[in-house]
Design brief:
The chain is built from 21 helices and five strands. It is mostly helical. A five-stranded parallel beta sheet has the order 3-2-1-4-5, sandwiched between helices. The structure holds flavin-adenine dinucleotide. Belongs to the DNA photolyase class-1 family.
Length: about 525
């Protein structure tokens, strides 16, 4: 009997059993399937990635392991660099095939290129299907004539042309077991660890304090529960319009909060998408892209497509869609922003939610990103991007970079003169400042009238609220009314310079951004 094959199923994102084509491919004619997750030191740096995200990842791995155990399998968690760990496993487990989900991020692409070489040397077949996005992004770009669309409208046209994405696969009902001595064999090759999901502290992180962390547990089980909870509110789904949701709602949030599950692939975008479409079909007059929930998934897909189709997408310099803007770089202002010490309660509360929960509503992200860049502090979007990347549980290379370019009016969006007011904007949805009072308890007794500009409260009011501005809570670090106008002029100058340059060199530069 041929094909007594041993295969390796390498989980990276895609931490789920449903809609997992790599898993399906690994099981085909296999006698043994070895599910593996490798904890890559690249991703375990407390200076660059917060414990809030790592905790969510570890919960997701625990959940995956427990689901695999339900199918008489298990997750083998390995520690080390994939290009050092995998060749050892190929040999020790006599692996003939490795299957993993295709990943478009630059780090993943170069990592996977190296793994393909190593697999070829070891005579191991590689299968790498697409399931992190609705479509195969490279195929989409081909369909667009080899150039990634640079506007959402042209992107949705493309999607209409190519038809609906592939259907989601059901979860497996059985899995070939791993070799029973797989872990002993791995240890014999000198691989560290006991194969189990490690704790935060063994990875060099401190335990999270009470009340710190994303409000929901990581993993496919909770992700699917949350998704179905939202989908069961059919009227809400059908009416959903993103700009109408309140960034100041926090318990519960006004949007789905599924982003961390989509980031790690605990839920399948294809499954979510098809469920949304079936609700729209049965509900006449449903909302439409770009504001509908389907529209949100298409934003994700659009930004993935431009991120693959644009060189130096994560940089200003050398990035053909990014406006060149002479940002200031004040480390003091940047740190005050990150630590929630700008003196603007709305901005500081949002940054506190970011750092403690690892999540923010889209419009709160708008507010703090605009404030840091073109609105008030004129810091480089790449610095804000890094700080978001550290703290967001859902931090995603394509989406984070794209949205930072958007908010800094560096690409996609050109109305740099439309600046969010850190005072008027939150008032629209939260006139009493409940959000601020929750995340900044020092302001909890400040009267609503002054909650977004407490420096204007008379000193007796500050005393009564037990919050003296300049002592218990900072004074504003900039004069918004003045500085945002100055910054608009600086943006105008940069835009004009880009225009002049484009005129002189016959294109390039800023075209795509307008
Ligand atoms: P919902 O409104 O419920 O939408 C459902 C899903 O659609 C989201 O989970 C997400 O996967 C996708 N989606 C929604 N809005 C966007 C968008 N504007 N762009 C791309 N996809 C979207 N999102 C990330 O997932 N990772 C990031 O690193 C990230 N960085 C951002 C940085 C900035 C400066 C800004 C302004 C936005 C960023 N976003 C990022 C996009 C957006 O804010 C979040 O996806 C959204 O707020 C997540 O909440 P939700 O799951 O409740 O969204």
């Amino acid at each position: 009997q041929m094909s007594a094959e041993s295969t390796l199923l390498w989980f990276r994102k895609g931490l789920r059993l449903h809609d997992n084509p790599a898993l399906e491919a690994a099981c085909k004619n296999a006698k043994h399937v070895h599910p593996v997750f490798i904890i890559d030191p690249w991703f375990m740096n407390p200076d660059k990635i917060s414990g809030v995200r790592i905790k969510f990842l570890l919960e997701s791995l625990e959940d995956l392991d427990s689901s695999l155990r339900g199918l008489n399998s298990k997750l083998h968690v390995m520690l080390g660099k994939p290009d050092e760990v995998l060749p050892k496993l190929f040999e020790q487990w006599n692996v003939k095939r490795i299957c993993y989900e295709y990943d478009t991020e630059p780090y993943a692409v170069s990592r996977d290129e190296r793994i393909k070489e190593l697999a070829a040397e070891a005579g191991v077949e590689v299968i790498s299907p697409v399931s992190h996005t609705l479509y195969d992004i490279d195929w989409l770009i081909q369909k667009a004539g080899g150039k990634a669309p640079l506007t959402y409208q042209s992107f949705t046209k493309l999607v209409d042309q190519v038809g609906p994405p592939p259907a989601a696969l059901p979860p497996p009902t059985a899995l070939p077991p791993p070799k029973s001595d797989a872990l002993r064999l791995a240890a014999e090759a000198g691989l560290p660890g006991d194969g189990c999901v490690p704790s935060l502290t063994t990875l060099g992180y401190s335990e999270l304090a009470d009340g710190i962390g994303f409000p929901f547990t990581g993993g496919e089980t909770t992700g699917l529960q949350q998704m179905h909870k939202h989908l069961s509110r059919k009227a809400w789904v059908a009416k959903f319009e993103k700009p109408m949701t309140a960034p100041t709602d926090f318990d519960p949030a006004a949007t789905t909060q599924l982003s961390p599950y989509l980031k790690f692939g605990c839920i399948s975008p294809r499954l979510f998408h098809s469920e949304l479409v079936s609700i729209y079909r049965s509900t006449p007059g449903s909302s439409k892209p770009p504001v509908s929930l389907e529209g949100q998934l298409l934003w994700r897909e659009f930004f993935y497509t431009t991120s693959v189709g644009t060189p130096n997408f994560d940089k200003m310099v050398g990035n053909p869609i990014c406006k060149q803007i002479p940002w200031d770089n004040s480390p003091e202002l940047l740190t005050a922003w990150e630590e929630g010490r700008t003196g603007f309660p709305w901005i500081d509360a949002a940054m506190t939610q970011l750092v403690t929960q690892g999540w923010l509503h889209h419009l709160a992200r708008h507010a703090v990103a605009c404030f840091l860049t073109r609105g008030d502090l004129f810091c480089h979007w790449e610095r804000g991007r890094d700080i978001f990347d550290k703290h967001l549980v859902d931090s995603d290379w394509a989406l984070n970079n794209a949205n930072w370019m958007w908010l800094s009016a560096s690409a996609f969006f050109a109305q740099y003169f439309r600046v969010y007011s850190p005072i008027a904007f939150p008032k629209k949805t939260d006139p009493d400042g409940k959000y601020v009072k929750h995340f900044l308890p020092v302001l909890k007794d400040m009267p609503s009238k002054y909650i977004y500009e407490p420096w204007t409260a008379p000193i007796e009011v500050q005393k009564k609220a037990k919050c003296i501005i300049g002592k218990d809570y900072p004074k504003p670090i900039v004069d918004h009314a003045m500085i945002h106008k100055e910054n608009i002029s600086r943006m105008a100058a940069a835009y004009n310079a880009a225009k002049a340059l484009a005129g002189g060199s016959g294109g390039g530069g800023g075209k795509g951004a307008s």
